[in-house]
Design goal:
heterodimer, A: alpha+beta, three-stranded antiparallel sheet, 2 helices, B: 13 helices, about 75% helix
């Protein structure tokens, strides 16, 4: 009985030692990364959903040969994603519009509006609509 | 830590490192089309989180089963298959994250939740690719030769499982695209019926060519039709409706609409199911 134990233990040690360290490392990392991604997604799933809430901020303004370009950032304060987001802009009498494919929940998207060079005055920007993805 | 130390037990360590490198190649080969599909980027943040979790959870036993029949290392056994499953997920996550960052889809401005979704949804097919790499990319040498051929001994249920993997692989590549919905809308009931019959016919033909039907069924096409083709098509339909549901493609649709789109997606899925023998 006493002799059998060390033999079993030695056999077990031999099996474990035969596995490369790299195999344990990649498997361990795979487990950790998968659990981490699952935890982040689960955390988001358990949070109460907040409806789309879009706001526009002017990031910069520049002149090209043909246009007065406003670079804007559209921010979504809600947790739900907005698709086909229509942005309308007005400078004086000139209007411009742009459509963004998506603005992710708690995320942002960049866009630019181009007005005629002659357009003068402060820009007035608004979100005219979006759809559920 | 030095490279030999990382590799671990000498020749086995280096053989594993080679298998791992090939797994990255397999993952790359299998998910490049998905990584370059813009709908998949959007699903990463727009997909319902509960469905994304169900999608990942459903993939885990499938990946384990794939390890059992293929695996990216030649060794077998419960522990080794579990390690291979986790390592395949590692390969899938790393490949997806690296390429999404390379394509500018993932940036420093991407939130953790969006990034987790965008990477995880691509990591699952990436892990499937990693596990199929030994079959697809092996030159026949190296450490693999010893225990190749496990899928040759697959039971009937095992054969059906392999069909499900093949169906999922092709369905995953096509379900995210808008075209699936559009074809579903454009298809009249007659189109859908024709697609259904064509899917069954193609499945039956490929089942024979790929050798799914065993030698005893090879001479009995009617028996093979009931043993493999019909169950295979049912699996293709089931996988198709699951993937469509996971991607929200069934939302707001009535039953005939869902059936139409499912039958459309089941065409490539059934070809994938039939060709699973060639893939795995």
């Amino acid at each position: 009985m006493a002799a059998a134990k060390p033999r079993r233990a030695a056999g077990r040690r031999k099996t474990v030692a035969a596995r490369p360290v790299l195999q344990w490392m990649t498997a361990g990392l795979g487990l950790v990364i998968t659990l981490a991604a699952g935890a982040v997604i689960l955390g988001e799933a358990l949070q109460p959903s907040r409806p789309v809430a879009l706001s526009i901020c002017v990031k910069g303004e520049r002149l090209t040969q043909t246009s007065r370009v406003l670079d804007i950032v559209v921010t979504n304060e809600g947790s739900e994603t907005a698709a086909a987001v229509d942005i309308a802009g007005k400078v004086g009498d000139a209007t411009a519009s742009v459509t963004l494919d998506y603005v992710p929940g708690d995320g942002e998207a960049d866009a630019s509006l181009a007005f005629p060079v002659t357009a003068a005055g402060p820009p007035v920007l608004s979100v005219s609509g979006w759809s559920a993805p | 830590m030095t490279a030999p130390a990382l590799a671990g037990t000498g020749a086995r360590g280096w053989a594993y490192a080679r298998d791992l490198g090939r797994a990255f190649g397999g993952a790359l080969l299998f998910i490049l089309p998905l990584l370059m599909t813009m709908e998949m980027w959007a699903f990463g943040f727009a997909m319902d989180r509960a469905r994304l979790l169900v999608f990942i959870a459903a993939a885990l036993p499938l990946l384990y089963g794939l390890c059992y029949y293929a695996g990216f290392t030649a060794r077998r056994g419960l522990v080794n298959d579990l390690l291979d499953t986790a390592a395949a997920l590692f390969v899938g996550f790393v490949t997806a994250a690296a390429l999404l960052a390379l394509f500018g889809v993932l940036t420093l401005q991407t939130t953790a939740a969006d990034a987790a979704g965008q990477i995880a949804i691509q990591a699952v097919p990436g892990a499937i690719g990693a596990l199929l790499a030994r079959r697809q990319l092996s030159g026949g040498g190296g450490s693999d030769a010893a225990s190749d051929g496990d899928e040759e001994d697959a039971s009937y249920l095992g054969e059906l499982f392999l069909m499900a993997v093949g169906a999922l692989f092709l369905a995953l590549n096509l379900a995210p695209t808008e075209e699936m919905i559009l074809i579903g809308y454009k298809a009249t009931p007659w189109h859908a019926l024709t697609i259904l019959v064509a899917s069954l016919a193609l499945l039956h033909v490929v089942v024979f060519t790929a050798g799914f039907a065993g030698q005893e069924d090879q001479d009995r096409p009617v028996t093979a039709f009931f043993h493999f083709t019909l169950p295979g098509y049912a699996i293709a339909l089931g996988i198709s409706v699951f993937v469509l549901w996971a991607f929200g493609r069934t939302d707001g649709e009535d039953i005939p609409g869902i059936v139409n789109t499912t039958v459309v997606l089941a065409l490539p899925a059934s070809i994938g199911a039939a060709a699973a023998r060639l893939l795995v």
